[in-house]
Design a protein that fits this description.
Helix 2 links the parallel strand 2 and strand 3. 42% of the residues lie in helices and 20% in strands. It has two domains: 186 residues, Alpha-Beta Complex (Spore Coat Polysaccharide Biosynthesis Protein SpsA, Chain A), CATH 3.90.550; 87 residues, no CATH class. It is globular, with a radius of gyration of 19 Å. By secondary structure, it is an alpha/beta fold. The strands form three sheets. It has an eight-stranded mixed beta sheet with strand order 3-2-1-4-8-6-9-7, sandwiched between helices. It contains nine helices and twelve strands.
């Protein structure tokens, strides 16, 4: 019997984390282990784990390492003692048959359960009924065999926040492993969007509201496309950055100058390979 571990990266979100842990404990196919990687420093998550979920493997970083640092460490721990690693943000709802259906879908695609990546469907409306190939994945709901993790390595910690999942899925694809949506398995987001709509003369864009996320989004995306020598994607990112900056300039509200600077600095740092945590853009409550 293949063992499955869940890895959750969390930041100051105890109520949703508690619901998610209850969902995972209630799965019709039992998880072998659950790992929680805690980027918060307020102590509340640590107390929750000690009082309500002592069986969970908890790691408190005592500093915000971002999604990249959290998944790097969580995947490292889970893949060392399990055959399959199921990944989560802390803001999702997981119906009790999600893991069972995900494993059934994986087994139909790969009876050895070790040669492809599968992901739970993550919106309420399912657009197809059979497994369908993905070009890449976000972390939430993705199940990765430990054998693939050993082959491709761990996520890049220096991306800190944003695009770390994109880079990792591209690395898996480059290694020759296919990736599939499994529509019978659901993992549903419950947090409200952290983006805002910008518009000018019929031109629209939906972007991160926080300057910290704008910075890391543009920095890491530009750096990834540059590293991969994806010239068309680089040009599109530059043009999109110009579009977003124009919309920010013409929009109302506070923080216009700081958000404009975040996009510009992100593009410049990405081009120059200045990665890791930027102290000026260390997320606080916006992480």
């Amino acid at each position: 019997m293949r063992t499955v571990a869940a890895v959750i990266v969390t930041y100051d979100n105890e109520a949703m984390l508690e619901r998610l842990l209850n969902d995972l404990v209630a799965q019709t196919v039992s998880l072998h282990e659950i790992f929680v990687m805690d980027n918060s420093v307020n102590g509340r998550t640590a107390r929750l784990m000690k009082e309500r979920f002592p069986q969970v493997r908890y790691t408190g970083f005592r500093a915000n390492r971002g999604s990249a640092g959290g998944y790097h460490e969580g995947i490292r721990q889970a893949a060392g003692t399990n055959d399959l690693v199921w990944l989560f943000d802390d803001d999702v709802i997981v119906p009790p048959d999600s893991l069972e259906n995900l494993l059934k879908g994986l087994e139909r695609l790969d009876p050895n359960l070790s040669g492809c990546v599968v992901r739970s469907w993550c919106t309420g409306t399912r657009l197809f009924s059979q497994p369908r190939k993905m070009r890449g994945f976000a972390w939430r709901g993705t199940l990765i065999p430990a054998e693939i993790i050993r082959r491709v390595g761990l996520p890049r910690r220096d991306y800190f926040l944003y695009c770390d999942d994109t880079e990792y899925s591209m690395r898996i694809a480059d290694a020759g492993y296919p990736m599939y949506w499994i529509p019978d398995s659901l993992v549903l987001e419950q947090r409200q969007s952290d983006r805002q709509d910008l518009a000018l003369a019929g031109i629209h864009s939906r972007v991160y509201a926080a300057k910290e996320k704008l910075y890391y989004a543009f920095r890491n995306q530009f750096n990834l496309f540059m590293t991969k020598k994806m010239r068309c994607a680089l040009v599109r990112t530059l043009l999109y950055g110009l579009k977003v900056m124009t919309l920010i300039i013409c929009s109302g509200g506070r923080g216009k100058r700081s958000r404009l600077a975040a996009v510009m600095r992100g593009l410049m740092d990405g081009a120059q390979g200045r990665l890791g945590i930027n102290p000026f853009y260390t997320p606080g409550e916006n992480a």
